[in-house]
Design goal:
It is a single chain. The N and C termini lie far apart (102 Å). The relative contact order is 0.06. Helix 3 (47-56) runs antiparallel to helix 4, helix 12 (218-228) packs antiparallel against helix 13 (232-244) and helix 12 runs parallel beside helix 14. This protein has 385 residues and is of the alpha+beta class. 54% of the residues lie in helices and 16% in strands. Strands 1, 2, 4, 7 and 9 form a 5-stranded antiparallel beta sheet that branches.
């Protein structure tokens, strides 16, 4: 039999010790999975998560250092392979860096945040449905660079959905007010008041302090803000003057009814598209995101019928999502306007509804979905026919 020399025996012993240590380490990690973070967080791909943890603790310098480490790692990968996923990770790092600077505050930090937002937007213009433009506008507003902030908010309004768009409309109104253009601020804040819930007290106070202008909605805007602040008598006076002047504004009439404790007529029948797109009223309109308010004398179920069409081609058909108390999805199949009906539940009083086009998978472009008409009827009326 061949004997094992001393070198072979030593090597086997070393390998045996390595295997034994490996098994012990794996057993320890299996019993203590949190310790895996010691290994995982050391890799640059985990730097964003580590930065998020530092930011939550208020350690801005450490958070920024981790975000830079992650960004540089994905930059190196992207320079080699040009993969879209790695480009998006770079943009994500830029957004994290910008957000950290905004949380840190201070003139220099905010100016740096704007530069990071610019870099992120240049890499991925369609990202996050307008959120980077909103955040960039907020930073510019704090820097008192009002014209630039207003332009950034406009981008957020055009690209954004839901609350992002509404927040941008409020911010742009602030810019207009600071630029001594109260008539333009009144237009934005009229829309913001109409389609927002849970507005902060400081925002209402700012709106209520808007100087009088030639905008016909001014009295509705200031009166509406005063009403929400609980100053009913001052609000009532302005709203009565507004409606007495012949303003054809359903929202203003609703505010007056609220201020005077009177019932407001329930919606039924056709709803004009100017209710969904206050700044424009041509039909059909391409959907990004649209808002409309519906009024019910009593809570119940209603049938909402939307005339929709699509110019999209391909296998994946675009969708329209209608969001009230719940979200319902409609598949838009035809290039011709087709009636799409669905049941929605409305509460007594004012109900906010959003209708938006869902982006197709893998696309950053707005789907070509068009809104032609809207109609509302209470279900009990349909059942009686």
């Amino acid at each position: 039999m061949k004997t094992i020399d001393r070198f072979d025996a030593g090597a086997l012993a070393v390998w045996g010790l390595v295997l034994l240590a490996s098994f012990i380490l794996l057993g320890y990690l299996a019993a203590n999975p949190r310790k895996m973070l010691w290994i995982e967080t050391g890799h640059p791909s985990a730097a964003y998560g580590a930065g998020d943890e530092w930011l939550r603790k208020g350690e801005y310098a450490k958070a920024i250092r981790e975000y830079e480490r992650g960004r540089d790692y994905f930059k190196e990968l992207y320079e080699k392979d040009r993969l879209d996923g790695h480009r998006k990770q770079i943009a994500s790092g830029m957004l994290r860096l910008a957000n950290a600077c905004c949380v840190k505050r201070g003139t220099e930090a905010l100016a740096q945040a704007v530069r990071y937002y610019d870099e992120a937007i240049a890499l991925e213009r369609g990202m996050s449905e307008g959120q980077p433009y909103l955040a960039r506008g907020d930073a510019l507003l704090q820097l008192e660079r009002y014209e630039e902030a207003a332009a950034s908010y406009t981008e957020a309004i055009e690209r954004g959905r839901g609350k992002t768009s509404l927040r941008a409309i409020y911010g742009r109104g602030v810019c207009y007010a600071e630029m001594n253009s109260p008539e333009r601020a009144a237009d934005d804040w009229h829309f913001f008041l109409r389609y927002s819930n849970g507005i902060a007290k400081n925002e209402l106070e700012r709106i209520a302090a808007l100087p009088e202008s030639g905008n016909p909605h001014w009295k509705a805007v200031v009166g509406g803000a005063l009403l929400l602040l609980g100053e009913k008598s001052r609000a009532l006076s302005l709203l009565e003057e507004y409606t007495a002047a012949g303003a054809d504004d359903r929202f203003g009439k609703y505010l007056l009814a609220e201020a005077s404790d009177r019932p407001f007529p329930e919606d039924e029948g056709a709803i004009g598209l100017e209710q969904c797109f206050p700044s424009k009223n041509e039909a059909p309109r391409q959907l990004g995101s649209a808002w409309f308010d519906l009024y019910a004398a009593q809570s119940g179920k209603f049938l909402l019928t939307a005339g929709l069409s699509s110019a999209a081609t391909g296998i994946a058909l675009p969708q329209a999502a209608i969001r009230g108390k719940n979200e319902k999805i409609l598949v838009v199949e035809s290039a011709e306007s087709r009636s799409c009906a669905l049941t929605i539940e409305l509460d007594e009083g004012k109900n906010l509804i959003e209708i938006r086009a869902n982006r197709q998978a893998g696309s950053d472009e707005e789907p070509a979905v068009y809104l032609h008409s809207l109609e509302l009827r209470r279900e009990t009326e349909i059942n009686d026919e």
